[in-house]
Amino acid sequence: MAWEDSPSHVCRGGDKRALTFCCPPVKPCPIVFALEEAGMTPQEYVEIKEKFGEKTRLGEGEGTCFGSLVWCCKPSKPCPLRDMVLRRIGMSSEEYMDLKHQLSQELVGHEPTDNEESIKALADTFDVSREDASQVLSECGNDLKTAIKVLRMKNLEI
């Protein structure tokens, strides 16, 4: 089964679970904040991803930007290099996302994310109750970007 509630990319507002879709931390970008939230140094992050790649098919990826699928993004983001490798090695999107989900769990564990700040921000921004904001965020798999889209659409309906 593919990863049903996978978050948006970190650079698009996804939570720390999305570190599984990030490149190595070689430039200033939102990964810095996600690593802080996960309580992980950049070196620990690199080591975890490289070790995971050694024991799974995500270690394959000659021809991708960083030479391994562990550094590649979600299939929803167009990438001809990643897609070419997936076709070449015969890996389906479902297998890819299952492995990315496992990698995410190794990176950030299984603990639930603390959504209090996100709930407050959603409630304040969209003038809804904290309960409504919490429910929308939960229905969106704790993906803040998706919750924002849903609340924007609800505001348009009014």
Structure description:
- This protein has helices at 31-38, 42-55, 80-89, 93-108, 116-126, 130-139, 144-157.
- It has 2 domains: 10-108, no CATH class; 116-157.
- It has 7 helices and no strands.
- Helix content is 53%, strand content 0%.
- By secondary structure, it is mainly α.
- The mean pLDDT is 88.
Descriptive keywords:
2 domains; mainly alpha; globular; single chain; 158 residues
Topology:
Layout: H1 31-38, H2 42-55, H3 80-89, H4 93-108, H5 116-126, H6 130-139, H7 144-157
Please outline the major beta sheet. Answer: none
- The 3D shape can be described as globular
Rg estimate, integer Å = 17 Å
Query: Helical proportion?
Result: 40-55%
Task: Report the portion of residues in β strands.
Answer: under 5%
The arrangement of helices and strands along the chain is HHHHHHH
Poorly predicted spans: none
Q: What structural class do the secondary elements suggest?
A: mainly alpha
Briefly say what this structure is.
This protein has two domains: 10-108, no CATH class; 116-157. The longest helix has 16 residues, at 93-108.
